[in-house]
Amino acid sequence: HPPVSQMEETSLLRRANCRSKGGASGFKVAILGAAGGIGQPLALLMKMNPLVSVLHLYDVVNAPGVTADISHMNTGAVVRGFLGQPQLEDALAGMDLVVIPAGVPRKPGMTRDDLFNINAGIVKTLCEGIVKCCPKAVVNLISNPVNSTVPIAAEVFKKAGTYDSKRLLGVTMLDVVRANTFVAEVLGIDPRDVNVPVVGGHAGVTILPLLSQVNPPCSFTPEEISYLTDRIQNGGTEVVEAKAGAGSATLSMGLRGDAGVVECSFVASQVTELPFFASKVRLGRCGVEEVLPLGPLNEFERARLEKAKKELAVSIQKGVSFIRK
Ligand code: NAI
């Protein structure tokens, strides 16, 4: 693989294995779409993560450049780059975690659903690679529309007989990050001290912040609730418009690799009648350990939930039909 010679690689691996805190040999992580706006900072965070021993960076453009750059960081993980479809299988072989930010982002005026036609096919192909090379990997899907790409991935895995709902997660953490920031602004406190559950899905009205369950407990005026709900639902659009065609949100994205963490994520779920739903989930080494219930909702949230479910049902079905058609 381009950036490291065989000898260098052996010594790097030895070093990674003794330094890594992620178990005997650490986590092996692949990022698909690693040269993009999300992929690059994500690669940097993964390279800094002491739980990661091997980091594979795959993209259809610029993967060798990003790999050379990231590989110079003085942290333990061994970095290898993979360019284009012929190298996809090598990129995936033996991976424990595959994170997928591959695909196109929104431009001003676009909804996440407008990305379906391009990103659905990309996600399908990448998931077929996972089936073949690392069917037991935990898969984190970032590519939009998450409300449809997660069902697409599930269908690809089901078709191949490798589906494990615990190992497939749609990344919606950005909605929580935004909610924490905006709520902290209203409350005049440090955003690090705020935790807002955000449930439903990852697009427009399907993004449902549960402002009645904010930690620390607090109350809002009806005006504040309507301002915060709208701002959290449209946080992504705010960034897309501010970047004016140069991309969507990338810098506020993050991912955690710790065990025993509770985060909101879009997963296979029995929390509602829908097959997939974002809510708090307890994460472990193998993915989802427990999907937590919604908790008590107030009247405003119950009404918004019905609206969210309507749109979500359509997006899920669209993803399922894309594979079953
Ligand atoms: P970007 O355009 O900067 O990067 C996407 C990367 O994917 C590019 O490097 C591109 O070459 C690569 N790519 C395209 N087709 C590929 C393929 N077949 N295989 C491998 N790589 C491929 O876009 P950005 O800003 O990084 O966004 C990526 C995706 O993440 C978009 O769909 C965006 O809507 C979504 N997103 C999701 C968020 C979430 O919270 N879940 C937040 C922000 C963006």
Main features:
nine-stranded mixed β-sheet; 41% helix; 11 strands; two-stranded antiparallel ribbon; binds 1,4-dihydronicotinamide adenine dinucleotide; alpha/beta; 325 residues
How are the secondary structure elements laid out?
Blueprint: H1 6-19, E1 27-32, H2 39-48, E2 52-59, H3 63-71, E3 78-83, H4 88-92, E4 97-100, H5 116-133, E5 138-141, H6 146-160, E6 168-171, H7 173-187, E7 198-200, E8 207-209, H8 222-233, H9 235-243, E9 261-268, E10 276-284, E11 287-291, H10 299-324
Parallel strand pairs: 1-2, 1-4, 2-3, 4-5, 5-6
Antiparallel strand pairs: 6-9, 7-8, 9-10, 10-11
Helix pairs in contact: 5-6, 6-10, 7-8
The structure holds 1,4-dihydronicotinamide adenine dinucleotide (NAI).
Overview of the molecule:
The chain is an alpha/beta fold. The chain is built from ten helices and eleven strands. The chain has a nine-stranded mixed β-sheet with strand order 3-2-1-4-5-6-9-10-11, sandwiched between helices. The chain has a two-stranded antiparallel sheet with strand order 7-8. A hairpin with a 6-residue loop joins strand 7 (198-200) and strand 8 (207-209). Helix 5 runs parallel beside helix 6 (146-160), helix 6 (146-160) packs across helix 10 (299-324) and helix 7 (173-187) packs antiparallel against helix 8 (222-233). The site of 1,4-dihydronicotinamide adenine dinucleotide has 31 residues, from helix 5.
